[in-house]
Amino acid sequence: MSETTLKSVFDGISSRLAGKSDLCQKINAGYQFDLGGAQTGKYFIDLTGSEPKVGEGELAGAKCTITMTGDDFIAMVAKKSLNPQMAFMTGKLKVKGDMGLALKLQTVLNAS
Q1: Residue-range definition of the domain harbouring residue 47
Q2: For residue 85, which of 98, 71, 70, 99 has the smallest C-alpha distance?
Q3: What is the CATH number of the domain that holds 32?
């Protein structure tokens, strides 16, 4: 079985968000993900336009930055062993910026 990568996780998020213009109107903000550890990368979810954009790199003007290890992020998104609230309370997930947006992140990541 192949290892799940950050790129494949964000590609999946991009696919799930495709056509979700209502989510853009509702949230109207950008998220930055600074992921470290064994799987390192910077990714973003931009919900400020008419269609969601997900990509690798930095998003200028992101209102919420999530910092955690790449492996913990994958476990959280895959709903495996890491609950977002528990990750935050134990310091595995750090939030900089708008905490209200951080609370809406689960809706964004689980859009279907």
Answers
A1: 6-105
A2: 99
A3: 3.30.1050.10
Backbone angles phi, psi at 81, to 5 degrees: -105, 5
**pTM beyond cutoff 0.85:** yes
Domain total of the chain: 1
Across the beta sheet with 94-97, what order do the strands follow?
53-56, 41-46, 30-36, 64-69, 94-97
Inter-helix orientation angle 6-17/70-77, to 10°: 40
**pLDDT tens digits for 19-45?**
899 988 999 999 999 999 999 999 999
